[in-house]
Amino acid sequence: MQDVTTPRTSGGLIAGLLLAAGVAVALGVYGRVHTPVYGALPAFGFSSVAAFKSWVASVVLAFALVQVVTALWLFGRLPGIRGVPARLGTVHRVSGHIAFVLSLPVAAYCLYGFGFAPSPFSARTLVHSVAGCLFYGAFAAKVVVVRTRRTPSWAVPLAGGALLTTVVVVWLTSALWAFATFGAHR
Description:
- The structure is a single chain.
- By secondary structure, this protein is mainly alpha-helical.
- It has one domain (about 50-180).
- The chain has helices at about 10-35, 50-75, 90-115, 125-145, 155-180.
- Helix 2 runs antiparallel to helix 3 and helix 2 (about 50-75) runs antiparallel to helix 5.
- The model has no long low-confidence stretch (mean pLDDT about 85).
């Protein structure tokens, strides 16, 4: 009997890319046309809204790094580590969910409180705004790519890499900048 396997297709990948573009553009348009209301945002016990956003974004970055390590471990790409613990997949999924949920108030503050690349023009805020919108687009694409069984094998690591890249760029252009400019206050 001959083994017949289902060929990999790019349908899920194309759907993921279209969804990613749609989400990123929708967020960018909302952030651009919305009138920012920065002064109305609570700091939740932090010294400022910027401190709240910076610390929560730093926790998101930490969970993103957990995502990278667990993904590499799951796919056997960590040098010198052979076995995969039974619950590692659960740790990977839960850390991803936590990172995503924690990113939501930060993104809401950015879009609702500041808008997309607020005036006056700054390259840092433009890069930050674009990366923030791309993060949610990349997240949507990764969900589609992971759930579609017939996507090319390189699509999941590519989507994960896009997510990590956007998280790092968002953190560098916001939290690190705020810590360097205002200090690491609570």
